[in-house]
Write a structure and sequence with these properties.
- There is one protein chain.
- The chain is of the alpha+beta class.
- The chain folds into 2 domains: about 200 residues, no CATH class; about 200 residues, no CATH class.
- About 50% of the residues lie in helices and about 20% in strands.
- The chain is built from 13 helices and 12 strands.
- It has a 6-stranded mixed β-barrel. Strands 2-10 form a two-stranded antiparallel sheet.
- The longest helix has about 40 residues.
- It is elongated.
- The model has no long low-confidence stretch (mean pLDDT about 85).
- It is a multi-pass membrane protein.
- It comes from Fontibacter flavus.
- This is ABC transporter permease.
- Belongs to the ABC-4 integral membrane protein family. LolC/E subfamily.
- Its main location: membrane.
């Protein structure tokens, strides 16, 4: 066994004196354990929230979304669409027209986004995460139907069981040079029957109404122009490989985004929050590790005679430094291992048994989401190592300067 480690472990396990220094060492270990456990748990919660956001958005958004690089819309000819559908890995291509419109139901009005989609929209497996009320269908050409976000339905007080009341949609027409005094000439108007509500996320619930592509194209006068294409990848195919093929095929005039890129801002915010939480808890862990500094300093004072004897026996300053640094490492690593194990157990129990509830009755999940990632354990360990070295170096340096003739 390494001599410096042997002496450090004997100092740590010494039972001759249950004095204040020993108690302080144990408190240091407990402080490191609690801080490490908190880091593991909080980082796992952020991982769970990130996965939850991805799953919720994936149930509304497409796996891949094609948009024009410049402008609001693009022309989608049938031959051009057939070439995209024929690309390797592409399973379903859904044409989309999306814009703001005014909706009226009885005496209530609400401004929201109308999303016109082709008939295969529901074949993407939409709304897998979330809730649906009513019949999830878009109707026929003769009787189009709309799927409303729950928030939109609430704002308009829509009654799905009312067979006679229709949802009115208003869209402003492009301004013309010749003025008119007839307000009916300033907007397009049509009616559609509500068929269902969906609830995925507040951003979508309060702002979206899904309707058939032909209905929206006629109302907005889009013709064969589309605002985007939503693409489902064949099962077993890599989304990233299909994305590269689409980009190569479409060229610079189009952007192809996966689900993460469609909400890059939100996911980046979660990652930044996770980073700042990690830094904050690391500072708290550093504060807890001040006890290591004080306990090692007091041990260095108490063990002056032992240090002098070691010097007299031929020990060098390097050995003395190693003794106290390794004793600090024993204290910190013992606490870190306990904290990592406790953090793992708590996160596992939350994942399996749902110890802590979100407390939100309308949430799509009941309990706080958690997910363990091995890199979190790695960076937590790195933080503990760095903090331990900083806390133990100064006492080790002081102890190494003890001279036998000063005793």
């Amino acid at each position: 066994m390494n001599l410096s480690f042997f002496i450090a472990s004997r100092y740590f396990r010494s039972k001759k004196k249950r004095n204040f220094i020993t108690v302080l060492s144990r408190i240091s270990m407990i402080g490191v354990a609690v801080g490490t456990m908190a880091l593991v748990v909080v980082l796992s919660v952020f991982n769970g929230l990130e996965d939850l956001v991805r799953s919720l958005y994936a149930s509304f958004d497409a796996e891949l979304k094609v948009e024009a690089s410049l402008g609001k819309s693009f022309v989608a000819e049938e031959e051009w669409l057939d070439l995209i559908k024929a690309l390797e890995g592409v399973d379903i291509v859904t044409e989309v027209i999306e814009d703001n419109a005014l909706f009226k139901y009885r005496d209530y009005q609400h401004l929201a986004r109308i999303k016109g989609v082709s008939a295969n929209y529901l074949d993407h497996g939409r709304f897998g995460q979330g809730y649906v009320w009513g019949d999830l269908e878009l109707g026929t050409g003769q009787q189009p139907k709309a799927i409303l976000g729950r928030g939109v339905g609430f704002f308009l007080s829509v009654d799905l069981d009312n067979e006679f009341e229709m949802l009115q949609v208003f869209y402003p027409k492009a301004p013309r040079s010749a003025g008119t005094i007839d307000p009916n000439q300033l907007y397009s108007r049509d009616m559609i029957k509500p068929s269902a509500f969906f609830s995925v996320d507040k951003e979508f619930d309060d702002n979206y109404i899904i309707a058939p592509l032909e209905f929206v194209s006629k109302l907005l006068n889009y013709g064969n122009r589309r605002t985007s294409l939503e693409i489902k990848v064949k099962e077993g195919e890599s989304i990233q490989r299909v994305k590269r093929r689409l980009r190569a095929h479409l060229g610079e005039g189009f952007t192809v985004k996966d689900t993460d890129e469609q909400h890059a801002g939100l996911l980046r915010t979660i990652k930044i929050e996770k980073l700042f939480v990690f830094i904050t808890l690391s500072f708290i862990l550093a504060v807890a590790s001040f006890n290591i500094f004080f306990s090692l300093s007091m041990i260095a004072i108490e063990k002056k005679k032992d240090t002098a004897i070691l010097f007299a026996m031929g020990a060098r300053q390097k050995l003395i430094k190693q003794i106290y640094i390794k004793q600090g490492a024993i204290i910190a690593f013992s606490g870190a291992i306990i904290g990592l194990v406790l953090g793992f157990v708590l996160v596992w129990m939350q994942d399996k048994f749902g110890l802590i509830s979100l407390g939100i009755a309308s949430s799509v999940i009941e309990n706080y989401p958690v997910k363990m990632i091995w890199t979190d354990f790695l960076w937590t360990s790195v933080a503990v190592i760095a903090i331990t070295f900083l806390a133990a170096y100064r006492p080790a340096l002081i102890a190494s300067k003890v001279k036998s003739y000063e005793l």
